[in-house]
Specification:
Blueprint lengths: L10 H17 L42 H7 L1 E6 L7 H5 L4 E5 L7 H13 L10 E4 L1 E3 L2 E2 L2 H4 L5 H7 L2 H18 L3 E2 L16 H4 L5 H17 L3 E7 L19 H6 L2 H9 L4 E4 L17 H10 L5 E6 L3 H5 L4 H11 L3 E5 L3 H14 L4 H15 L7
Helix pairs in contact: 1-7, 2-15, 2-16, 7-9, 9-11, 14-15
Length: about 400
């Protein structure tokens, strides 16, 4: 997803942020501000996120997805695109059990208190008295894509981070950013970008949104970025699988083609593979057509894409689509409800759609579950992975 507000970031300003970010990181036990060498980013075994955890005695819990209605189950599999300026209008989607929200726009710093209150109220509207809270997400990649710049301050682009900072410094900066996001009520960042792109790539700002054209650098920096968010309690989302750094066009506005799968394996897939090994909880799947993989479909709609993600990369977390309102999806002949059903039948766990499409999408998913084209067991497994990634326990009785 690439709707953005353009900003410039001189490296002199990056140095100023670095000082405060590293100090904030050190306050939480982060890396030393005197670090001058690239350190290895944290690598932990990928957590099992196939099913939600079981609640210990006395802890609030939710009924397992197998006991939910088809409507509530379908809603949990949907990420809803909204705006920071109209948070309250999304209360019906939250009450229906939407799995998460993506907020667009660039609110002013004067809206800070209203944002915090609005997000809290939206979460409280969720089922089980807010126990199954939706993810509250936005894009704060840095550089040209940083929705809350006027509230939280600017952040250098990933390419500038890679040029100026060590992995330890990236992790510290993102820990500080994550703490600021949590302070507002944002629980998910649709970042890091794990694409690899040339520094002159003209497509959709990939030259700045990606860390590097070198797979190993993109992987190490992306893992550090995600680790910083995780240490602040914010869920990181690696994107745009299987890679947009060499795509022919911007999938937001129309169709695009990636290099063949054989080429992706040695370059574009490397950062995703390493980030998955390091425990990345959520992967966003993009919409390029990949020769040798997606059979002429956008990758997000192709079963082969999810087989590659699950079977080859051994990813056990949540697979969500990029926005299904994208031009590449429409050009392939799909409405948002049709695309959502197709993506989940193909193997996605969550479909990202515009707020206006939420109810039609939920109805289409209900029908698919009822008809068996989207097996109930598969939908329940997806909901279980979502609950587990949210840290929501299920009741045993």
């Amino acid at each position: 997803m690439r709707r953005r507000v353009a900003r410039r970031w001189p490296l002199a300003q990056a140095a100023l942020l670095l000082g405060s970010a590293v100090l904030a990181g050190c306050a939480g036990g982060g890396p030393s501000a005197t670090s001058t060498t690239t350190s290895a980013p944290p690598t932990t075994a990928a957590p099992s996120t196939t099913t939600a955890t079981t609640a210990p005695p006395g802890r609030p819990c939710t009924a397992p997805p197998a006991r939910w209605s088809d409507a509530r189950l379908a809603a949990q599999l949907v990420m809803v695109l909204g705006s920071f300026t109209s948070i309250s209008s999304l209360a019906p989607e939250s009450a229906a059990g939407a799995g998460g929200f993506v907020f667009l726009g660039q609110p002013a710093d004067s809206q800070r208190t209203a944002l915090r209150a609005g997000l809290a109220q939206l979460g409280a509207a969720a089922p089980d008295g807010g126990q199954v809270a939706p993810w509250m997400s936005t894009d704060t990649e840095g550089g040209t894509v940083a929705r809350l710049t006027d509230v939280l301050g600017p952040l250098p682009s990933p390419r500038q981070m890679a040029a100026a900072w060590t992995t330890a410094q990236i992790e510290a900066a993102m820990r500080a950013r994550g703490e600021a996001l949590r302070g507002l009520g944002i629980t998910m960042d649709l970042a890091p970008v794990l694409d690899t792109a040339n520094p002159t790539d003209p497509v959709a700002d990939e030259s700045q949104r990606s860390f590097s054209t070198t797979p190993g650098v993109a992987a190490a920096d992306g893992i550090a970025y995600a680790a910083g968010l995780r240490s602040a309690g914010v869920v990181a989302v690696g994107k745009h699988f299987p890679g947009l750094g060499h795509a022919s066009a911007n999938t937001d506005t129309g169709p695009a083609t990636d290099p063949p799968l054989a080429t992706l394996r040695s370059v574009d897939l490397v950062p995703f593979e390493r980030a998955v090994d390091a425990g990345l909880p959520v992967v966003m799947v993009g919409h390029p057509v990949v020769p040798g993989l997606s059979g002429g479909l956008p990758a997000s709609l192709s079963p082969a894409t999810y087989s590659l993600l699950r079977g080859t990369l051994h990813f056990t977390g949540v697979a969500m689509t990029d926005s299904l309102a994208a031009g590449a999806v429409a050009d392939a002949g799909y409405t948002e409800p049709q695309a959502a059903v197709t993506a989940l039948e193909a193997g996605a766990d969550m479909a990202m759609v515009d707020a206006a499409a939420f109810q039609p999408v939920v109805s289409a998913l209900e029908q698919a579950i009822s008809a068996g084209t989207l097996p109930a067991a598969r939908a329940e497994a997806s909901a279980g992975r979502i609950l587990a990634a949210k840290g929501i326990a299920v009741c045993t009785t």
